[in-house]
Amino acid sequence: MSSAPRHGLPHVDATTPPVLVLPGPVTKDDVPRLCEAVRTRLQDTTAHVVVCDVQDLGPPGLTTVDALARMQLAARRAGGRLRLRAPDPALRALLALVALPFEVERQPEQREPPLRVEEAVESRDPPL
């Protein structure tokens, strides 16, 4: 029994995840619509992640945390997960305070240097 060779890496998802932008403050009435939008985006694409752009949410509150938690639950029930894009530091702190772990999309300029890497000059190194 033989099969045709696969192209590319089998563990890499080459699809671009769909993005859901949350404009302005979120109200309790918005939550069912947002959860349905997450489910729809996961079902309509082959991606397993929905990126939720929370940059324009404004000051976070418990309604925002509740909405994000319900959206994350809807994504998990649909077989995917939710990733936050550009969360405010206050939102990240509030999510940590209520112990809700969220995957956060990192921007290239926000990368942290690797740990235990120090630049030093050895005395035997020739000058450049």
Describe the structure.
- There is one protein chain.
- The chain is α/β, with parallel strands linked by helices and 128 residues long.
- The protein contains three helices and four strands.
- The chain has helices at residues 31-44, 62-77, 89-97, and strands at 19-21, 49-53, 81-85, 103-105.
- The protein has a four-stranded parallel beta sheet.
Write a brief structural summary.
By secondary structure, this protein is α/β, with parallel strands linked by helices.
What's the mean pLDDT score? 82
Query: What coarse outline follows from CA principal-axis ratios?
Result: elongated
Q: Rg to the nearest angstrom?
A: 20 Å
Give helix and strand order, one letter per element, not per position. Answer: EHEHEHE
- Major β-sheet profile: 4 strands, parallel
Count, helices:
3
Order of strands across the main sheet: 1-2-3-4
State which percent range the strand residues make up.
5-15%
Helix content: 25-40%
Structural class category: alpha/beta
The total count of strands amounts to 4
Whole-Å distance between the termini?
61 Å
**Low-confidence parts:** none
Structural key phrases:
128 residues; four-stranded parallel sheet; 3 helices; 4 strands; 30% helix
